[in-house]
Request: fold
Amino acid sequence: MRQFAGFLFLGAAVLGHTAEFSDGVGATWVLAKASGTCVLEQAVDDYGVVRFSGVVGQPLRFEVLGYRDLFAPGPVKVLRVAPPWHASYPSTEVITQLPHRSGGALRATDPIATRVLMNLYEGFDTHLARSGWYAPNTAVAVEISSVNFRPLYEQFIDCFHGASASAWADMERTRVTFDTDISALGGKAEVVLKRVAAYVLADSQVTQIFVDGHADSSGTKQKNQKLSERRAESVATFMHSEGIRQELLVIRYHGASYPVENNTTPAGRARNRRTTVRLVRDWAADRFGAL
Reply:
């Protein structure tokens, strides 16, 4: 347990100290199944355990179980927090409040449970914040780390809803690459995009599709900008031809501004000549039902 001053984003600027509980950088998620219940949990040092549990045909369940009750009476804030390595850092958003139960347990089902699950999947940490009962001018923060979460996410969803549920993990982000100075799609790229389009048409909860065009750094800034635009447009046009509604598509292009590899090698430049397709889904709308 660590204590420090000025944990402002918790809305506790007037509080003198915050007791922070976290599993730290080496956070460990553990997946288990017993008696038909699928459980994904993380131990929080000196505090207790955070747990997602699911049974086929029932809503997802989210619990925070402490060894002792440290929160003061009243609602506990649930925050989505971008860690320092996240592209959205620094950002913090209060997503809900949970009732403080006798003994200190916090519990939620869908849609809140699914929202917390997906925030972790997207690399955001979850913080639980409330003043402490045990001393004036104190706050308690329980941190749920997203580190090492993704490798077990797909297995948890498979356990909870069957193998078809894992399709989202495969389809959420897709990348197609291009040869030098080329913006037309090749046959392999079309096959990949046909699969993405088929998924979107089958999943009514996809609310937006971001199509982002990129280039390597071998050309001028103006040339790379136009090339990335044409690459994004070619992907979006193909997706539309496969039946995707135009209003779902958000087309963006970035030139060579966001390389994923070093442009000093042929292999690196090949990976940077790309268009990415990212799906956005309203998880609360059907609570995994369409997967």
